[in-house]
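User: what does the whole thing look like in 3D?
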Amino acid sequence: MSGKTTRDDIVAAADELFYKKGFEHTSFSQIAEAVRISRGNFYYHFKTKDEILEAVIARRLAKTRDLLAQWEEDGETPEARIRSFIHILIVNRADIKRYGCPVGSLCTELAKLNHVAQADANKLFTLFRTWLRRQFTLLGRKADADLLAMHLLARSQGVSTLANAFHGDKFIRREVEEMCGWLSDRAQEVAG
Amino acid sequence: MSGKTTRDDIVAAADELFYKKGFEHTSFSQIAEAVRISRGNFYYHFKTKDEILEAVIARRLAKTRDLLAQWEEDGETPEARIRSFIHILIVNRADIKRYGCPVGSLCTELAKLNHVAQADANKLFTLFRTWLRRQFTLLGRKADADLLAMHLLARSQGVSTLANAFHGDKFIRREVEEMCGWLSDRAQEVAG
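Assistant: Here's the predicted 3D structure for the full assembly of 384 residues, as structure tokens:
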């Protein structure tokens, strides 16, 4: 196994643990255990948990960029692309019900820790915000594109938090339907 | 200082620290330091952090009941009462921008910790949900009162999470206005 691959394995394991157990609650040894490597090998790659966090955020940013590029390619219209964003609540509902949203819960945790990586983690939100803003602009809503992007991001975050507390599949599906209805109203305002 | 008061002081200090730093990140000694009592005196009242958490949740439940009773008394109509709920986003915006929502962030953290107190913490959400449901019923929306309550709770949670990440006062005010608009549309659907 090359050094590069071991490092990737560590970051992938940390990513999952930070999401499922929280950053603060995850220990060095839990990550080493998940990757099945020695402490020595581990320290060769990362000296502190903050270094791992930085790598985890970089990994999530890269994965988010890939996801947004995929939606861009798959969706024929801006409305269809925004619907892809709305539907991650359904696609990822099993994890969301257990652990909340990976972006929202990390940003909230780092804010409380007053962690230096807070600004970096918030870039995850900014990626979605910028992408949504562009889609709303393409939809013909240039003037309020950013407001609509923030509104939709907030709705999606709120559904994650409550789905995490109450575990309701029906609730998620109903809210997703409401968001899609809201979206098509916004599109029709332009057409009308 | 009576034993009762010292205990109350501990719980109040822990409540604030759990909110501002997170439950996991707050240590016994930080709480003792905030209350300026000896470790011995501290242990007389609480043996574990989980015991403190239980008391903190009980305190928050009591304070939430008081708050809801106050809104009930102050608001002449169900619509006015629901607006009181919406406006906590503005009233508490300074803390929300720094630390998020106390209810949402605690529930999310305890879900990741898979903590036994998770169900108790979720009762905080349930208090708001039940109260909102009753107000929507009084508003004449008996059939979908719970859906509307959950929808509004989710919107409020989402605004907290994004205000915490992006610190925008304008964003909060605009979303509060949108929620109030949404509310008066729901009321007019009944009247119309």
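In plain terms: Residues 53-189 of chain A form a domain with the Tetracycline Repressor; domain 2 fold (CATH 1.10.357.10). Chain A has a mean pLDDT of 95.
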